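Thread: Modeling a multi-component assembly for a lab meeting

Hi all, long-time lurker, first post. My supervisor asked me to bring a structural picture of a complex we are working on to next week's group meeting, and I have zero experience with this. I have the sequence lines for every component (231 residues in total). Could someone generate the structure of the whole assembly? Inputs are pasted exactly as I received them:
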Amino acid sequence: AQSVTQLGSHVSVSEGALVLLRCNYSSSVPPYLFWYVQYPNQGLQLLLKYTTGATLVKGINGFEAEFKKSETSFHLTKPSAHMSDAAEYFCAVGSGGYQKVTFGTGTKLQVIP
Amino acid sequence: EAGVVQSPRYKIIEKKQPVAFWCNPISGHNTLYWYRQNLGQGPELLIRYENEEAVDDSQLPKDRFSAERLKGVDSTLKIQPAELGDSAVYLCASSLEGAGGPKGNEQFFGPGTRLTVL
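Re: Modeling a multi-component assembly
Sure thing. I ran the full set together rather than chain by chain. Output:
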């Protein structure tokens, strides 16, 4: 079984401030972890993913995430928020050979000018 | 390269009416997914196809929902009859192989069909 918990359904940051979106996962096997972004009335777009290897993963638009096995976390960060980052972000977990991906409930990011 | 195409983008129907959604995945992607996304929630898998075979339909409400993927390319998801609780966004996604699989291939999502049942 696998699951994802995203802490905070809404997060507000000022433009230029650090973005931190939290994700904790549960998986009975080594996880594959994903962050997706969804803009209004659009489908989900992959920001970054962790499968194996380096635990710090860099993605598009300046985002990165760090896989911490001891904390079962995969938090998403960006040093400086931009207005265009306002969207909903979904963390997801997959389990290798099971080929099923489970999504979290999402965090809506608001960027304040 | 064209992305995942879905139609229609919006659909409003009366309860008890049938409705169908169509999806054309990215060329060469053998895995296709249908998800339902309720307001304020993440996508929930309804069915996953590997080529034309439905390999995971455990979350598909089979009394009213059906899906097909003829020839392993396009897919159609049908609801008959629709209920008020079916109002949601229906997302189609595709990947080269099962997402979360050994290569961790990402899923590419279409824009979704927003269904409103009155």
